[in-house]
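=== RUN LOG ===
request id: a7f3
mode: sequence -> structure
chains: 1
length: 708
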Amino acid sequence: MVNREKARAQARERARELVNQMTVEERASQLRYDAPAIERLGVPTYNWWGEALHGVARAGAATSFPQAIGMAAAFDPELIRKAGDVAATEGRAKYNAFSAENDRDIYKGLTFWSPNVNIFRDPRWGRGQETYGEDPYLTSRLGVAYVEGLQGDEENIMKSAACAKHFAVHSGPEAVRHEFNAVAAKKDMAETYLPAFKACVQEAGVEAVMGAYNRTNGEPCCGSRTLIEELLRKEWGFEGHFVSDCWAIRDFHEHHMVTHTMEESAAMALKAGCDINCGVTYMYLLKALEQGLVTEEEITEAAVRAFTARYLLGLFDESEFDRIPYESVECEEHLEVAQQLTRESVVLLKNDGVLPLQVSAGQTVGVIGPNANSREALIGNYHGTSSRYITVLEGIQDKVGNNGRVLYSEGSHLFKDRVENLAWENDRIAEAVTVAKHSDVVVLCVGLNETLEGEEGDTGNSYASGDKADLQLPAPQRKLMEAVFAVGKPVIVCLMAGSAIDLSQAQEKASAVLQLWYPGARGGKAVADILFGDCSPSGKLPVTFYRSLEGLPDFEDYSMKGRTYRYMEGEALYPFGYGLTYGDVRVESAALSGKDAESGDVTVHVSVKNAGNVATGDVIQIYVKDRESPFAVPNHSLCAFARVFLEAGERREMEIKVPARAFLVVNDEGEFVPGSGNCLLYVGTGQPDERTAALSGKRSVEIALNPA
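=== RESULT ===
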């Protein structure tokens, strides 16, 4: 972590000097997300609301990365750190240019409300696409990396300010989030829901934390003394600013019914430590002050924390970041980082040998499906604007060129029973069947987009408020898939979605299955590169693909029992951590090679070989299982991973560090305590479960650790 302790102390001192010159009315005004100018003090207007989930969002042109869940599938913290740096660089370039034009509108500041490090505990959650998946260790590693990328490595100034959200226990349902009480046991809190937030605070020095809409164990998250004051500030040592989710404080009296008035809600949030209000409730702070519900000192402290952030960003000084030119936006270097992330994010779930395709004279490729030529299916939610979009169809057309023929059919509407309103039902299926019959191979692009899964209020999926009702593809797409399979040609199913979908039919009947996620505005190029073998797929699933909802607890149940690979009891369709390549990377041997006496970290020496004839990346994964502790998770937990690239036939020796905390367990009081010491480490290219072994033909190497 970059040590900004000295810079923060200096920024806070300057912030206090400035705030002391303000009237209480001016101080209160600065706690709104749309803070007005104070001209007599030289303070310009500032809008705190900025988005950079996968590139700068909602502020015009910017480099577009795969959706966060796709970035997670890359299992590549260093590349995600680069993506964060790209977003920060382009954010600075845009801020510099817009400020020069006196444009200080929403989404045009340097405080980015990203990353979302909530745990994707249930596949129905529409906003799960914004997260890094279901595993707290993976989420913490990627969250830390993205924060570090956004905030930069300068000790005296932040390139931009990151924000870990939504603190702390939040993952749906969207429809009731404004009134919902998420009840989580102390063990689940400490073991699953909190680690990524703690890592972002203590390892990455994240500047901001955003609260959630819901209550957690009875307290509204944006007004929770337990979460904000006791845990975040006192226990973890968080020194940055806290921001509410948008209009969440209003929910205190309108939906949670824990207060009665705007003034009481504003007071509850401020006294708990919420500094910035995304919403309008803090417009009632002065009335709350008049009523004795808050003190002037509490308003002052929140204002000081807010201006500390603005000073740390160098907004009142000249800095090297002022010289970042607008030409850096969507520059070639940044676009290449996005392409590399897309290439690493694609997960190959099945391949009977049809992939990679060959660009050969006379070959006809049929491209079918509502997502094949869809820009919406490229970008997910919380997206920016690209100056160019490359759909999967366009990527394939560019790749094939004049060497063959590409036929196309939309096949079906994304979710309606017909494309043309006046037509018969399933009006594009005949065309799709015709295309399949006239093709040598079919690429079938199905899935969802942000109109079907996403945030409550942002999607057209009003019946579930952005969540999924089930794991099925929309009915028109299921009919399309059946019709195309019935033709009998080799079919490559490409799923474009931000969450797990039931792909049982594709697994049974398709020649190949690829999970593309939402691959970014120009993602079609990288997808074509993979389809035609210019590079090998190497992504891994950051979530479990369940066979159905059967066996999953109720959506509203926040207990981890039965959820995610660590706690599930049944067999997955596609397990967490699974993903094939065109090569054949195998762990030949693994053994302990050292233990740090001071930290307790363990080093594992791993010998890996690509036994295949195609160069490929892959992810070496290490899981731990405590065989005796009653507090251990039922299955096993990811505790270390490392990306590797191997040429065909290449062998490599690797050293991978397993942190000492991997051998701790969490008791019922939420305390990390030593485990039994009788542990197994599993080292492989996926989980050590039977389903992964059956799908991949590979088993992990086991290392036994016994009590000293």
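=== NOTES ===
The chain has 21 helices and 23 strands.
Residues 346-543 form a domain with the Rossmann fold fold (CATH 3.40.50.1700).
=== END ===
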